[in-house]
Inverse folding.
């Protein structure tokens, strides 16, 4: 069993990312997976409390 992955992209990139992922991962197995698209209202970095775009930035300086 493979654990689920989560990918968050800008709205402008969503369609091309879905197409690319489907092309790379397409196979004839019935359990190949599914892609769900939805709007993300907010992101919160639990450790720092940062929200929005800043919460997505890498912590490593």
């Amino acid at each position: 069993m493979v654990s689920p992955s989560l990918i968050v992209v800008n709205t402008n990139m969503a369609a091309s990312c879905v197409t690319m992922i489907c092309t790379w991962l397409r196979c004839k197995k019935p359990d190949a997976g599914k892609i769900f698209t939805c709007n993300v209202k907010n992101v919160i970095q639990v450790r720092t409390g940062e929200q929005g775009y800043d919460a997505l930035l890498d912590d490593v300086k």
Observations:
- Helices lie at 14-25, 53-56.
